[in-house]
Amino acid sequence: MERIQVDLGARSYPIMIAEQVLRQPELFRPYVDGKRLLIVSNDVVAPLYLSTLEHSLEQAGAQVDSLVLADGEQHKTMESLNAIFTHLLEANFGRDTLLVALGGGVIGDMVGFAAACYQRGVPFLQVPTTLLSQVDSSVGGKTAINHPLAKNMIGAFHQPQAVFIDTQALSTLPSREFAAGMAEVIKYGIIWDRPFFDWLVESKDKLQSLDPQALAYAIRRCCEIKADVVAEDETERGVRALLNLGHTFGHAIEADQGYGVWLHGEAVAAGTVMASKLAYKRNQMSESELQQVIDIHADYQLPIDPPAEMTLERFLVPMQRDKKVMAGKLRFVIPIHIGQAELVADVTQQELASLIDSQG
Ligand SMILES: NC(=O)c1ccc[n+]([C@@H]2O[C@H](COP(=O)([O-])OP(=O)(O)OC[C@H]3O[C@@H](n4cnc5c(N)ncnc54)[C@H](O)[C@@H]3O)[C@@H](O)[C@H]2O)c1
Ligand SMILES: O=C(O)C(=O)C[C@@H](O)[C@H](O)[C@H](O)COP(=O)(O)O
Ligand SMILES: [Zn+2]
Questions:
Q1: pTM higher than 0.95, yes or no?
Q2: 280 C-alpha to ligand 2 centroid (Å)
Q3: Which of 138, 159, 285, 358 has the fewest CB within 10 Å, making it most exposed?
Q4: What is the model's pLDDT at position 97?
């Protein structure tokens, strides 16, 4: 088993990565023994993994209840959040409640936010079951629901007590969802780690065929990078903004198209290519590196262009609500080299027009 620590003083926690984590009660025992807890999952993941997790948590000494929500990004809403609160209240869960998120990033973000709010804050565990949630969303404590007008707008920073990554769960993940997760994996290579990017280029066949060793290494490396970034800047005052590469454009695509039409990772992929083209047009990235960014996304079956019908105006409306906006100015993460990125605040409307109008 791999164990990575997220160092945040009193709120530090481990990320545990192994093939059969769900079947290892002893890993859960320190967090759940003697506790009354609620597992929250969705109607796709629950039939696959809920009973295994329930069994392990009971073996580990917990009193277990569960709630199954509707699946999908379109359900990352106030209504779903309220369904969690209603269940907790109807079953008289108190401040000693422990919540457990079993699912992808949608469930993880929502359950984390429920934990941040319920009775002013209760602890929670992340049990991520998609590639995307295992490499990114389960770590770092960003929790939220969407607003119809923009992504992740209502939320809180609330760190989990532990993250349990079962790599075996990826065996049931649809290939489109696997590709979406790869967008965030590739992101780490571009913002932080050139050798990792090169390894991703070389390891495509192994990763796409779910080679256990390759998968475990990719997940571990992403979690290490995210743990380092979050430990340095928990609430995104500085370096953490780099994890938002591709997201200014990507979140605009998700909101414009309707949540769930473009998967988050697909929108991030197109957004990352757009950010790289922006860097190239500003003479901040070489043509050869831009091409490598485009190629790796295409090789991993990800979109490299935004929806053709999205005009500059359609990007600008949601982008003006981006959380990185400061003093009314948009800020973009752009790659300088593969392995290095920066946050820029001086992108002009003309540059954006030339980028977006030249698409398609
Ligand atoms: N908090 C963060 O730091 C952070 C980081 C990245 C993304 N996010 C958020 O995460 C969300 C995207 O997460 P996601 O890509 O995991 O999407 P998701 O949670 O919607 O999961 C994708 C699909 O896979 C299904 N699924 C999950 N595990 C499965 C499995 N093992 N086998 C079969 N099907 C399975 C889900 O039910 C869903 O249909 C977005 O809302 C995004 O904003 C948050
Ligand atoms: O952890 C972070 O910080 C990230 O930015 C990771 C992103 O992949 C993730 O999609 C995050 O939810 C986006 O954050 P937001 O603040 O732009 O909503
Ligand atoms: Zn993301």
A1: yes
A2: 24
A3: 358
A4: 96
